Amino acid sequence: MRRNNYPYQPLSNHPSGSNPQPASHDSLEAENEQAAEELKQKIGALKSLTIDIGNEVRYQDKLLRGIDDDMDRTSGFLGNTMTRVVRLAKQGGGARQMFYMFLFVLVVFFILWLTLKFK
Predict the structure, then answer these.
(1) 89: Cβ–Cβ under 8 A, 6 or more apart, which residues?
(2) In this structure, are residues 98 and 89 in contact, taking their beta carbons and an 8 Å threshold?
(3) What is the mean pLDDT of the segment spanning 93-119?
(4) How many CA atoms lie within 13 A of 9 on its CB side?
(5) Exposure pattern of 72-93 as b/e (b: 16+ CB <10 Å)?
(6) What is the pTM of this model?
(7) Which of 58-62, 80-84, 94-98 has the lowest mean pLDDT?
(8) Where are the alpha helices (DSSP H) in the chain?
(9) Do 14 and 21 contact (CB within 8 A), yes or no?
(10) Residues 6-20: pLDDT tens digits?
């Protein structure tokens, strides 16, 4: 069966009116079989590659969802902490407590810097 949109037209190896030789037909059939085997191997390699890509995409999607969940939890925790800090600053004597907290943070960072520098 021939398709109309298929551009390949086989070339005739024999003059018109004579019968084709069986040897040339067999060689063409062998080449066709070899090409089909090569195509089958390439299709198998592509199938394997697409399966590996799909597995990698699923794995990375799982990692990204985990990171997204962690970020949501962290932002919630940070929001609650900032609310508490603002509430503490608004209470009486909050400026002094904020100064002590800022001083504490500076001392901690200074100690960490010294530790990392002279390690």
Answers:
(1) 95, 97, 98
(2) yes
(3) 87
(4) 4
(5) eeeeeeeeeeeeeeeeeeeeee
(6) 0.47
(7) 94-98
(8) 22-90, 94-117
(9) yes
(10) 556 666 555 555 555
